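Regression test attached.
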Amino acid sequence: MQPIVSITNLSKTYASGHQALKNLNLDIARGEILALLGPNGAGKTTLISIICGIVNATEGSVTVDGHDIVTDYRITRSMIGLVPQELTLGAFDTVWNTLCFSRGLFGKKPDHAYLEQLLKDLSLWEKKDSELMTLSGGMKRRVLIGKALVHEPAILFLDEPTAGVDVELRKDMWALVRRLRETGVTIILTTHYIDEAEEIADRVGVINNGELLLVDDKHALMHKLGKRQLIVELDQVAESIPDVLLPWALDLSADGLQLSYTYDPHNTHTGINELLQAIGAAGLLLKDIKTTQSTLEEIFVSLVKS
Amino acid sequence: MNTCAIRVIYKYEMLRAWDTMLQSFVSPVISTALYFVVFGSAIGSRIESVEGVPYGSFIVPGLMMLVLLTQSIANASFGIYFPKFTGTIYEVMSAPISFFEILVGYVGAAATKSFIIGLIILATAGFFVPLQIAHPVWMMGFLILTCITFSLFGFIIGLWATNFEKLQLIPMLVITPLVFLGGSFYSVNMLPPAWQTATFFNPVVYLISGFRWSFFEVSDVSVGLSLVMVLAFLGICLFIVWRMFKTGYRLKQ
Ligand SMILES: Nc1ncnc2c1ncn2[C@@H]1O[C@H](COP(=O)(O)OP(=O)(O)OP(=O)(O)O)[C@@H](O)[C@H]1O
Ligand SMILES: [Mg+2]
């Protein structure tokens, strides 16, 4: 199937001379949730801004549903909703009016029923006549989401939607994102919280220094890079690793009470069985055994560092 | 053509004026009244008439122009600068709207506001001095053209400005002197010859002269030349604004 967003050789150099994107290529599939991870200044917002028409690309092209974002901007932009990273809202408008304004910008007449449903979904219905400056930060964030959804877009960009948002609202937000996905909306979000990407996304892309380091299915990524560790706690201090255990390349903790074994859980033969038997044979007494799995965060850190 | 978008931008800008009505509409009326008290009554009582027109009436067109120019520029420059400053402009930029539609929305609203203010001032002036309008169609024509041209000019300043200081700079340093020296309160003929020549490099002279002609049929330059000059300035502003959007100047990085 044709990707809904296709980015080809995209580069961006700002007037300051800073190159924020370097020859970036990425296809976004219809209906997926894609999380873009990357440290501050990686170029995530720049990428989104180009697709939405806020920043001009220096080189390369982007198509949305097969239409070029520059020549067919009317078609592409009407398909896109954007929740910006910053809380940028007017001060004196009411929630209701600002939503009508946004919808009007996309050439759509006010639809009372749809707006009411949207505000209720965002738990903003009681606030519909409040002035924006009287809202809390989390409410403003929801108003921005409302503004992005008010023209019923097929693609939604969420630039760090959970910055400054409490746990409850974050849950609501992910529920909303999942509901949207069920209706066929493609969602691209950026975040610094790896657990978030892990929880919600279908695919994860990692951007650093304007380059897309990788983009892969979340599970495949974990599969590829996700190591697991078996940690064996000993009953008595071991001075050193017994010779018979050398083939497993174990690590002994400084206090001599913990052995850890790193393995790939997807191998048919993990070597755990033999290891445990060998530990027993070496005369070491076990106190506890646990396994840990590397998170996207660890994967991410190792990628960015390297 | 996304007429719906033009309409919401226009409506939004007009509502903003309504919310700040005191500042938008009442303050020009007060300042006009003050001008009449000071120039019309206090000084005007000594001057009696200029080219056969009572001084109090003579200054009405110039006064209207003074307020129209400053208001058009202030309204339009603020209208586009403010969303740029707060960041809410992202919304307009990511919407399926052409540059032309953005322009029509913002400049149209600013020009409408100035037009309303112009009419209010005219009505206010009517309280103080006897008024006659010899050529109402020309008067309206000049009024509308001035509102549009200087709103456009204000829009350019609002796009160009990167801080509040720059926003104030041109209106204060360029426009106010040009208007005061443009014959708002006197006839150019009253100046020494050398200054008269210098004055004709001031575009505002042509504006005020033409506008005054539509009231009293007295002018410093021919009305045709006035019209040409206003249209030329409109053309220049349109060209600049077209270039600006072509290059995404100060709006798109
Ligand atoms: N308008 C601009 N002019 C010059 N440089 C800019 C501009 N906007 C962004 N940059 C630079 O481009 C780089 C990428 O910025 P961008 O905002 O895309 O990063 P990001 O990945 O969104 O970061 P964050 O996670 O902090 O939001 C940064 O080095 C930034 O300083
Ligand atoms: Mg960002």
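Expected vs. actual: identical. Residues A 44-45, 85, 159 surround magnesium ion (ligand 2) (CB under 6 Å).
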